[in-house]
Every structure is written in C-alpha cells, then in structure tokens.
Amino acid sequence: MKNSHISCLLFFYLLLVLATSDLIQKSCYEASKGNHANVKLDFCVSGFKGNPKAKAAYGVADLVLVSIDTAIANATAIGSKISKLLDNKHVGMFARNCLKDCSELYSLAGSSLEAGLDAFQAVDYGTANAEISAALDAPVTCEDQ
C-alpha cells in the first residue's frame, strides 16, 4: 500500500515537471516567433529551465513575473557593476562619462521594470508593455555610447 502511494506521488510529480517543461517550451516558442526578434528560443528555454521559480510556474503569467523579476535583478546587478567601475580612479574621462550615462540608463530601466511589474500585476497590460519595452532600450543605448 505504501509503495502505491509513493508511486502515485512520483507519477503526479513527473506530470507536473513535464507540464512545466511543456509550458516553458511552448511559451518560449511563441515568444520567439513573429516580430519578437529579441527573444531567442534556446536562450529563453535554458533561462527558464535554470530558474526554480519558472519550474514552479502554472501558467504564462507566472513566467512573465519570473522574467520581469529576473530583468530587475539583472538591471540592478549591472548598475552595481557600473558603480564599481566609476569608483575606479584610473577610468578616463570619456569612459567615465559613458559609464555615468549607462548608470542613469540602467537606473531608469530598473524603475521602468518595477512600474511594468506593478502594471502587470494590476492587469494593466498596455502600461506593462510600454514600461517593459522602455527598459529594453537601456542596454542598446548604453552600448551605443
């Protein structure tokens, strides 16, 4: 009897894992087709499969929240790295000015992502899309500096 309960639990656990894996695969596939040139299928899938929160996702909305949270963490980490570079006394004036611009861009990106997260949770998808899209410009603009 005990073995049948364990087998049942294992079966349902495997179903959940497979369902989540299928959700990730399908969501990444949909995000990568069409006019979403920024989303690469393999990168999307590997990013979610390496994230415990994504593995626990029940739907696309959960994956969106994981994506926004990850983007906020990344923008914050990059902003911190830029600050450390600005602390280096050996950075030249041109590089320092570029880094200051990038610092401001990533700060704004973080704020936009936070606003996008709030809007998404409030089911205001238009505002969420606008805020998150604005945040996507930071890396490109910084790189162009």
Automatic annotation (TrEMBL):
Ranges of residues in domain Pectinesterase inhibitor: 19-145
Keywords: Disulfide bond, Signal
InterPro entries cross-referenced by the UniProt entry: Invertase/methylesterase_inhib (IPR035513), Pectinesterase_inhib_dom (IPR006501), Pla_a_1-like (IPR034088)
Keyword Signal carried by entry: yes
Keyword Signal among UniProt keywords: yes
GO MF, any single term: enzyme inhibitor activity
Pfam annotation, one family: PMEI
Signal peptide extent: 1-19
Domain of life: Eukaryota
GO annotations of cellular component type: extracellular region
Entry's family note: Belongs to the PMEI family.
Protein name stated in the entry: Pectinesterase inhibitor domain-containing protein
